[in-house]
């Protein structure tokens, strides 16, 4: 059935004003000031009085759960589809964290497939903190080239839990991901957990200076941990990703003084562990990444003076474009997937449409996980 989203104030993310949006199946067919179709059944969804924005794209999610730094009991449960919908996330990139023993790339790919079957858009990264890289096929390149859901590789730098790979190993990893990405038509990125260690982004900067590997190949995340290095990297044209927190908006605004806003992204680290370490690297506490912090960070950016169309870019167009998925994701336009959120006057998420399906309506999640009805 066709759907018309009627009379919402559309930020695509660029501000379009009051518009109607025509949806067929999972795709946007048309956006214009008034759409009228007669002679066939059409579902009309009233969006008057609300903002309509693209669905959020969270590129750093531990969809099978992270953790493990404090024993097996500290392993975190998987993300549920409804958890994503509740917080406005319609697209995710799943990844492994510290633990590649109890967790595996096989399980990660399987969970990615499951989220797709449940109506979300999902991709994942091969690898983990460990080097040599854990994979499904035995090869980083083959994982990216031949597994549909895998779009790049995860590793860790500047962290005592990483494998302390040198710049030559990191460069080789980047070239493997890049060539496979070129073959498969994917971004083929190296997504780097960036800790607070002494290394910072020094090895990455050395690679960029000494080789012909493009800056777009490397994607540091948790950039609040190494803000000065991240800004220098961003000034070279790189994408820098911040983890949603109470201080993320401030760090993003500081970075934006020198880095193009279109190269700044935001992610949640949802269901990943947030361990607290003493100076001698002993575990003294544990936290957990929460997806709900994403929208809170958008509201913090609004409070800092950004217009809505700019505040949502790090969670919509910037992320989708950075992952070479911008033709379908992160934008509201004809031909794109029908992923969108409605916001009320208080900037709260009231409705979610994911791949053309009404997933949340008037603040109530309207879809279910596979086992929700099983007694």
How would you concisely characterize the structure shown here?
With 375 residues, this protein is of the alpha/beta class. The chain contains ten helices and 19 strands.
Structure commentary:
The chain has 375 residues and is an alpha/beta fold. The protein has 2 domains: 89 residues, Urease, subunit C, domain 1 (Roll), CATH 2.30.40; 267 residues, Alpha-Beta Barrel (TIM Barrel). The chain is 24% helix and 29% strand. The strands form 4 sheets. Strands 1, 2, 3, 4, 5, 16, 17, 18 and 19 form a 9-stranded mixed β-sheet that branches. α4 packs across α5 and α7 crosses α8. The protein starts with a strand and ends in a 10-residue tail after the last strand. The model has no long low-confidence stretch (mean pLDDT 97).
């Amino acid at each position: 059935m066709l759907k018309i989203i009627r009379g919402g104030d559309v930020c695509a993310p660029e501000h379009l004003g009051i518009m109607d949006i025509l949806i067929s199946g999972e795709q946007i067919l048309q956006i214009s000031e008034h759409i009228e179709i007669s002679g066939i059944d059409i579902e009309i969804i009233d969006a008057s009085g609300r903002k309509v924005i693209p669905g959020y794209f969270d590129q750093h999610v531990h969809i099978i759960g992270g953790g493990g730094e404090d024993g097996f009991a500290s392993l975190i449960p998987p993300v549920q589809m409804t958890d994503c919908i509740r917080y406005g996330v319609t697209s995710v990139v799943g990844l492994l964290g510290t633990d590649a023993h109890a967790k595996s790339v096989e399980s990660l790919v399987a969970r990615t497939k499951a989220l797709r079957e449940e109506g979300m858009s999902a991709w994942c990264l091969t690898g983990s903190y460990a080097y040599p890289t854990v994979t499904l096929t035995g090869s980083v390149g083959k994982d990216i080239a031949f597994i549909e859901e895998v779009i790049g590789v995860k590793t860790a730098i500047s962290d005592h839990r990483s494998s302390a790979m040198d710049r030559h190993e990191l460069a080789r990893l980047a070239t493997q991901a890049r060539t496979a990405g070129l073959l498969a038509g994917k971004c083929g990125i190296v997504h780097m957990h960036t800790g607070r260690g002494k290394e910072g982004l020094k090895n990455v900067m050395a690679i960029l200076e000494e080789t012909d590997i493009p800056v777009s190949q490397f994607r540091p995340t948790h950039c609040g941990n190494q803000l000065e290095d991240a800004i220098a990297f961003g000034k070279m044209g790189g994408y820098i990703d911040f983890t949603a927190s109470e201080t993320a908006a401030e760090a993003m605004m500081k970075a934006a003084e020198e880095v193009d806003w279109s190269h700044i992204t935001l992610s949640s680290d949802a269901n990943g562990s947030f361990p607290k370490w003493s100076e001698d690297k002993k575990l003294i506490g544990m936290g957990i990444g929460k997806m709900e912090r994403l929208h809170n960070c958008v509201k913090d950016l609004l409070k800092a003076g950004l217009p809505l169309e700019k505040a949502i870019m790090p969670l919509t167009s910037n992320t989708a474009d950075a992952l070479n998925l911008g033709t379908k994701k992160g934008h509201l336009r004809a031909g794109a997937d029908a992923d969108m959120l409605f916001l009320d006057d208080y900037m709260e998420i009231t409705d979610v449409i994911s791949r053309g399906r009404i997933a949340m309506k008037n603040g109530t999640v309207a879809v279910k996980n596979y086992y929700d009805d099983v007694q």
